[in-house]
Design a protein that fits this description.
With 402 residues, the chain is α/β, with parallel strands linked by helices. The chain is built from 13 helices and 17 strands. Helices cover 39% and strands 18% of the residues.
Length: 402
């Protein structure tokens, strides 16, 4: 590592709360599907800021909207009606079967809003004392106290933060009978990701996903989908729940919504949205001028350029290439799975060495649970970059055998 890098890391260690296990890489700039480090070395970005830069870094149309809107109106608060916020809501709702939206600033906040809405809807619209939120093991829903409690994982995410809020339980991923018996009169909602991201890229089987919705409808609780990572064309449909024709009562989005500016949203069907009334929920920055203008442009471009189709096509190409590498090295790669451009390559042994060698060769991806190479590239990445990644992976595995 260079002296520039070492100096930056030394300063960081002194001043920031040490909450992140960072890769040994400092990024100075990023354009499209390329990132450049402090010393001018270029990397192919197969992570997109963890499924955020779906349209690539520094997209010129988004930069233009950002600059123009910043000169018009940055922030006035939700005490006022704001045209950009309403325009965004209209275009966002045109992509799905929900009727109303609440804007916030992150995925955790969007899920927090969904959890609060589910409880309040049950109490004030349905007059039921139903408050429990059921999630799946392996899920990830955020780091606020409620959303980390909803998260179906043990370990550091929860340790030391007790007492955790009541009214959450996780049932085993994929076990429909476990879910059926967990849903009771106390259940307000079942909340699932269509593809578990942090969990290691685990798509929900179609039949299971359909049954989850059916169980919710039969029991009269809400079916809620966390699309924070899977949404906005990432999986090859605008929303991942659309692969199976599902109609969640509530779903959440964030990450790619403003392609890098902090933004989240909770979308709900009309009857459920009645659970919120003025004063019941709020956030200072939600739906401000600049983020709303940029997010509206993001959605316009995602639709105009058929980014869902692009994610489908490139995802199929990438899965095929990675499976060929698996066929060559079955002892090293145990599974290749994914939906659209949300792909996991599961290694048979701890993957730190392969992961860091990929980075040294100029490919940045994530390593989930120490074993799954998780790829969430910008949807504008080229087929050549994906094939180059496959070739590098093949070569690294081959040379590690020698
Ligand atoms: C599925 C899912 N839900 C919620 C979150 C939390 O989002 P944020 O980090 O913006 O709070 C994430 C973040 O990775 C996520 O992947």
């Amino acid at each position: 590592m260079s002296s520039k890098y070492d100096a930056l890391v030394a300063r960081e260690k002194k001043v920031l709360c040490q909450t992140y296990g960072r890769y040994p890489l400092a990024i100075e700039k990023a354009v499209g599907a390329r990132m450049t480090d402090l010393d001018g070395k270029e990397y192919v970005d197969l992570l997109a800021g963890i499924a955020v830069a779906n349209l690539g870094h520094s997209h010129p149309e988004l930069l233009k909207v950002m600059a123009e809107q910043a000169q018009e109106l940055l922030h006035v608060s939700n005490l006022f009606f704001q045209p950009r916020q309403v325009e965004l809501a209209e275009i966002l709702l045109s992509t799905c079967a929900c009727d109303r939206v609440f804007f916030c600033n992150s995925g955790a906040e969007a899920n927090e809003a969904a959890i609060k809405l589910a409880r309040r809807y049950m109490r004030t619209v349905r007059y039921k004392d139903a408050y429990e939120i059921i999630t799946l093991t392996g899920s990830f829903h955020g780091r606020t106290l409620a959303t980390l409690t909803a998260t179906g994982q043990a370990g550091r995410i929860k340790e030391g933060f007790e007492p955790l809020p009541e009214g959450f339980r996780a049932v085993p991923f994929g076990d429909i009978e476990a879910l059926r018996s967990a849903v009771t009169q106390k259940t307000a909602a079942v909340l699932v990701e269509m593809v578990q991201g942090e969990g290691g890229v685990l798509p929900l089987p179609e039949a299971y996903a359909r049954e989850v919705q059916e169980i919710c409808r039969a029991a009269g609780c809400l079916f809620m989908v966390d699309e924070v990572q899977t949404g906005l064309c990432r999986t090859g449909k605008f929303w991942a729940h659309q692969h199976f024709g599902l109609t969640p009562d509530v779903f959440t989005t964030s990450k790619a919504l403003a392609n890098g500016l902090p933004m989240g949203a909770m979308l709900a069907q009309e009857h459920v949205a009645k659970g919120f009334v003025p004063g019941a929920h709020a956030t200072t920055f939600g739906g401000g001028g600049v983020v709303s203008a940029v997010a509206a442009k993001v959605i316009e471009i995602l639709k105009r350029d058929d980014m869902a189709g692009q994610a489908r096509d490139l995802g199929a190409l990438a899965l095929d290439a990675f499976r060929k590498v698996q066929d060559k090295h079955p002892e090293c790669i145990s599974n290749v799975r994914g939906l659209g451009l949300m792909i996991g390559i599961e290694l048979s042994a701890p993957g730190e060495k392969i992961h860091s060698e990929l980075r040294e060769r100029g490919f940045v991806c994530n390593l989930a649970h120490g074993r799954v190479l998780r790829l969430l590239p910008p949807l504008v990445i080229s087929a050549d970059d994906l094939l180059a990644f496959a070739a590098a992976l093949d070569d690294i595995i081959e040379s590690n055998k020698a």
